[in-house]
Write a structure and sequence with these properties.
alpha/beta; 5-stranded parallel beta sheet; about 30% helix; about 15% strand; globular
Length: about 675
């Protein structure tokens, strides 16, 4: 169950809707002629319709891309695309001024004589940083978009930029306030959902195909060539041409196409519709074409969200995603749609076939677990279009999602490092105790709760000294890329032990061990609340920090036999001594520690730091179910006392216990973070 970015205070209307336009003929007679042909035949028929009505090809957002301000995050190279445009009512082709209307924003986003492919987002000013990140990434991807501002402040901010076609939504015009609730059942969310589906409908009526995407989606490449099956990518030998792994032609028969919350991009690549149908459809990335059936669905979807018929199955639902899932499936059946194995589309969707539903490949439209944890794109050797920050942990809010993007170098909203900034980076190395446990089980069997809990204990212990030293030196701490030996679930409702310590459903990816996102080890929310500045290892890839001399590796040696030399510290030093020894390197941008085991004995402000560490260095809750008594299922990894210590709400659950690192002694006595 992938989580949606629904915190209205954080996102306002925290969703982004992308509207993509396929200019297909919409006559019912034309649709009737292709009902019984094969998927590829449907694709050919639709391509003929495109060719018959095309007004020519046009490049996308080139002027906006050139005007985009620079950002600090890494992004994929832009994908230049061209798309055929169909005939539509006349409208100016020139880039006009933004006057708050949808029409003006669309003219900026999709210049030309006809509606085309466009992306649209809806958000308020409470999450301006996510809005900016979305804009920068979408522009770099050369993907056309509009953003519906849910409050006046968002419109003012975005319209001042040269790269963000924006307009004022009905909620903003009404001055509607949002209650900040993160729940789909809140009044704010329901009102937003109604507005959002209404705006999607409005754009579909104007002739645009709509790819509706949440604001917590980073676009790496434009999905237009795939969704519209246009340009070089669709031709024989092209990335999405006939016979390719992700052929675009079959998807042309879909009036609507949707992403999913499923956990296995590999199984999705093989099964496509049959696998997608077995999970929750995620309308955070949802594509609607302006076909007769597509428009009819958009009409009824909006109606069922805003004013469901009394007594219908939609009355009790609290989100547009829930309504979508119920509409597409037959009542009291699962999956409730006809989904042939390997097909790009599902038949009999929405009242037994009122619409053809497409499956957006999970490998190309990756959810948060597939990208941030599994790195399925590398395993499957694909270049995804998008990364959706679902399955983020901690508070699952803007802070958590921003952190996921930052550590993956997908956050472009930060400025480059300041020339005067100074950092202390903690490098990752496997702690000796953890290596001993890995050797005990053998690397092939090391993905277990014993190795993982030992690793987390060691990580936060080292972090105590690294954070204390960074504060003593007046430097910003750079977190390491830790290695995790067990996944962390959104809730402790499944038996992760039975699946090789991988989130149930994802185990075919065999991705453990993996690079831990921060929220597997620490709470980003706690660090944000404490206002402790830190950076992720991705910052070291910034050009100015890769320059010669920008990074100096600090040597650590046992105190016995240590001799004073530049860039070297004795283990068991004090913060004051370390500060003095490293003073000659004060101008170096980055000092990098190989590890921090046994680094500090004492610090100056022990009481204050201990209070801070008690809040920051706590492992987030980690729980799981056992399908047999945990005392039996976990006995191969944990001693009985540890299993009892982690006993959850019953004998069939376990919650890992990780101690806070030892406190520094307020009197100055030596307190190491590891046993000597």
């Amino acid at each position: 169950m992938g989580a949606r970015f629904t915190a209205l205070l954080l996102v306002g209307a925290a969703s982004l809707m992308i509207l993509a336009s396929s200019m297909f003929g919409s006559s019912s007679s034309g649709a009737g002629r292709i009902v019984h042909v094969t998927e590829r035949g449907v694709a050919a028929a639709r391509q003929q319709q495109l060719a018959a009505t095309a007004a020519g090809s046009r490049s996308r957002l080139t002027n906006l891309a050139e005007a985009a301000p620079g950002g600090g995050g890494a992004a994929a190279p832009p994908l230049a695309t061209a798309t055929a445009s169909a005939a539509s009512p006349e409208r100016p082709a020139a880039r006009g001024a933004l006057d708050g209307s949808l029409e003006a924003a669309l003219r900026v986003a999709v210049p030309g004589e006809a509606p085309g492919f466009v992306m649209a987002s809806f958000a308020n000013s409470a999450l301006n940083d996510h809005l900016v990140n979305f804009v920068l990434c979408a522009v770099r991807a050369r993907a056309p978009f509009v953003i519906g501002a849910v409050d006046q402040a968002a419109f003012t901010m975005l319209s001042a930029r040269r790269d963000a076609p924006t307009y004022v939504t009905p909620m903003a015009k009404e001055g509607a306030s949002l209650d900040g609730s993160n729940q789909h059942s809140s009044g704010s969310w329901k009102r937003f959902a109604g507005m959002r589906t209404g705006e999607v409908l409005r754009m579909v009526r104007l002739g645009y195909s709509v790819l509706h995407t949440d604001i917590d989606v980073v676009w790496l490449r434009s999905p237009e060539p795939y969704l519209m099956c246009s340009g070089e990518a669709s031709r024989p030998g092209g990335e999405h041409g006939p016979g390719s792994r992700f052929e675009c032609g079959p998807l042309l028969s879909a009036d609507v196409a949707v992403s999913s919350d499923n956990m296995s991009p590999g199984r999705d690549t093989e099964g496509r519709a049959s696998y997608s149908a077995g999970g929750t459809f995620n309308t955070g990335i949802l594509f609607l074409r302006p076909t007769v059936k597509g428009r009819a669905f958009a009409e009824e979807w909006h109606a069922n969200v805003v004013s469901p018929p009394p007594g219908s199955r939609y009355v009790s639902l609290t989100s547009d995603q829930q309504v979508f899932n119920h509409m597409m499936r037959k009542p009291r059946q699962w999956p409730g749609v006809d989904a042939p194995h390997g097909s790009a589309v599902m038949r009999e969707a929405w009242d037994g076939g009122r619409v053809t539903l497409g499956s957006l490949p999970l490998a190309l439209f990756l959810n948060g677990h597939g990208y941030f944890v599994q790195r399925a794109d590398l395993r499957l050797k694909v270049s995804p279009f998008a990364v959706h920050a679902t399955y983020s942990l901690d508070n699952h809010d803007g802070v958590a999602k921003r952190q996921r993007f930052r550590e993956a170098a997908l956050w472009a909203a930060d400025p480059p490092p300041r020339p005067e900034a100074r950092y202390l980076a903690l490098n990752f190395s496997t702690p000796p105790l953890v290596q001993t446990k890995i050797d005990k089980y053998g690397r092939a069997n090391a993905a277990n709760i014993d190795v993982h809990s030992a690793a987390l204990n060691a990580y936060v212990a080292e972090l105590r000294d690294a954070l204390a030293l960074a504060r003593a030196l007046g430097r910003t701490l750079v977190l390491p890329r830790w290695t995790c030996w067990c996944d962390r679930m959104w809730s402790g409702s499944d038996d992760i032990f039975h699946f090789g310590c991988m989130y149930p459903g994802s185990q075919d990816g065999k991705f453990v061990p993996f690079a831990c996102p921060m929220d597997h080890v620490l709470s980003p929310a706690a660090w944000a609340k404490a206002e402790v500045d830190y950076r992720d290892a991705a910052i070291l890839d910034q050009p100015q920090l890769r320059a010669s001399g920008a990074v100096v590796d600090v040597g650590l040696e046992p105190r016995p036999g240590w001799t004073r030399k530049a860039g070297s510290l004795p283990l068991g030093t004090s913060a004051a001594e370390a500060r003095e020894l490293l003073k000659p390197l004060a101008a170096t941008p980055v000092l990098r520690l190989p590890h921090a085991r046994g680094l500090l004995c004492s610090i100056d402000d022990a009481a204050a730091f201990n209070s801070l560490a008690d809040r920051l260095l706590r492992i987030p809750t980690w729980c799981a179910k056992c399908f047999q008594p945990c005392s039996k299922e976990l006995a191969g990894w944990l001693p009985a006392e540890e299993i009892r210590r982690g006993g959850g709400w019953d004998k069939m659950s376990y919650c890992m216990k990780v101690d806070v690192p030892p406190k520094f002694d307020a009197g100055g006595a030596c307190s190491l973070n590891v046993q000597p």
